[in-house]
Amino acid sequence: MLDHVVKLTKDATKVWKDDIDRLRAVGFDDRGILQITLIASWFNYINRVADALGVGRE
Q1: The predicted structure's pLDDT at residue 58
Q2: In 1-58, which ranges are continuous DSSP H helix?
Q3: How far apart (Å, rounded) are the C-alpha atoms in residues 20 and 3?
Q4: pTM of the predicted protein model
Q5: Domain locations in the chain as residue ranges
Q6: How many CB atoms lie within 10 A of CB 49?
Q7: Stretch 7-34: mean pLDDT, rounded?
Q8: How many whole angstroms separate alpha carbon 33 and alpha carbon 19?
Q9: 1-15: pLDDT as tens digits
Q10: CA distance 58 to 7
Q11: Helices 2-10 & 17-25, crossing angle to 10 degrees?
């Protein structure tokens, strides 16, 4: 799962069907895969917005 999240974070266009198949092979169902994707994507989005607005910088 963490390898998938790293790949999704670095470049989501590089996530392929075989990446999803690997998640299924270790026990994740479609709902779990969707949740992993949504949560990782949301955090990536929020962090980019915060970075762009300078949140936390002095």
Answers
A1: 72
A2: 2-10, 17-25, 30-53
A3: 11
A4: 0.84
A5: 2-53
A6: 10
A7: 97
A8: 10
A9: 999 999 999 999 999
A10: 31
A11: 160
